[in-house]
Amino acid sequence: MAVTDEAILKIKDMILRGELAPGDRLPPEKELSERLGLSRSSLREAVKALEVIRVLDVRRGDGTYVTSLEPRLLLEAMSFVVDLHDDDSILELFAVRRILEPAAAAIAAAHIDAERISLLRDQIAEVDESRPVEELVAHDIEFHATIVEAAGNSYLTTLIESLSGHTIRARVWRGLTQENATARTLSEHSAIVDALEAGDGKLAEALMIAHISGIEHWLRRWSTSGPQAGHPDV
Description:
Layout: H1 3-16, H2 29-36, H3 40-52, E1 56-59, E2 63-66, H4 71-74, H5 76-83, H6 87-109, H7 114-125, H8 133-150, H9 154-163, H10 166-178, H11 182-197, H12 201-225
Antiparallel strand pairs: 1-2
Helix pairs in contact: 1-3, 2-3, 5-9, 6-8, 6-9, 6-12, 7-8, 7-11, 8-9, 8-10, 11-12
């Protein structure tokens, strides 16, 4: 094991044991390196790595602190990485969404209130085929986030959001508009809301599976044949 990796694990262990809690300031570098049996250079590298993944917050002139460790914060890096993936990786990410998001919809059906149902219907009513791609992307992000948030699990919400960033959604919606599939997609959104309003978790789950699978199928077809076969260059 690399020395830096060992340092990361030792700091992680301090957090897990409760020696460091969210918001706590780390001991001075010299004191902490001696306590953990590490060189100061190894400790610095570990702190840099943990800062990147938002476990630690280095405040110049003040000290190093443990962040809030909230799921949204810790999963920020995943969203960045997702946007950098190639077509094959995107298909794998959609396969994960196809597992998680229908389950979230089923849970949401049991908890969603009239206010959220109204919000979802308003979101659908505000867009149509004439809207520019950026507005369709914004709608898609907001629509799916509203449903997942209704499930009431912050880890699930953040994980699903991070699996499909803005870049991937823009790619999909550009393709859908060029294939005149926007109306069908919005109709699928409406059907999902109907199932949620009825409190039918199994139907909401099935409709969400069909919805995401349809987009996944389109992406697979495009990545295999490419724009040369008549598919949009997204």
